[in-house]
Amino acid sequence: MELQQFLDYVNSGKTIEAPSEELMYSSYLMQEALKVTAEINNGYHTLEELQELFAKLTSQPVNHTLELIPPFYTDCGKNIHIGENVFINTGCTMQDQGGVYIGDGALIGHHAMIATLNHDFDPSKRGSLYPAPVHIGKRVWLGANVTVLPGVTIGDGAIIAAGAVVTKDVQANTIAAGVPAKIVKEIQATEENTEK
C-alpha cells in the first residue's frame, strides 16, 4: 500500500477493519511517526529545526510560520494539515489518521488532545477503526488539556476553555466549556479581527 492510497481510503471515511491491509499500513506509519517524534522530543532544537522535523513527520513542505514547543505526539503524522501562523504548545497529541485540519492563526494549548478515530462498540469488532476528521478554524484557541473528539468542527474565532471535552461542532466566535463542552458565551468579533 502507498501513502496516498491509504490517505484516500481513510479520508473517504471507510472503516479500517481489523485485520486488514489498511490497519497494517497504519501500524507502519505509526512506527515511522515514533522515529520522528522521538527526534523532536529528545533534545533541543531551534524553531527552524522543529519546522523541518514537522515537515518530515507530515511529508509536507516546511511551514516557516509554525511555532511548536515539544514534546509533540502523534501515531501517524501524515494526515495533519496546518495553516499559517499556528502555535502548538507543549504536550500536544494528535491522533490524525482520520485527518486533522488546523486553520491560520490557531492556538493549541498545553496538552491538547485531538482524536480522529473511534472503535466499534461491538466487542467482537472492537479492533475496527472509524476515521472522522477534525476541523479547527482560523484563529481558534484551544485551552490547556482540551480534548477534541472525532468528526468535530470548531468554527473560526472560537475559544475552547481549558479542560473541555468537545464532542460536537462548535459555532464560530463562541466560547465552549465543560464536559461535554457547551456554548457558554458569544464573542463579539471586531471587523479588524475577522479580516485577519
TrEMBL record:
One of its GO terms (molecular function) is O-acyltransferase activity. Keywords: Repeat, Transferase. The keyword Ribonucleoprotein does not apply. Pfam families: Hexapep, Hexapep_2. This is Sugar O-acetyltransferase. Signal peptide: none annotated. InterPro entries: Hexapep, Hexapep_transf_CS, Hexapeptide_acetyltransf, Trimer_LpxA-like_sf. Belongs to the transferase hexapeptide repeat family.
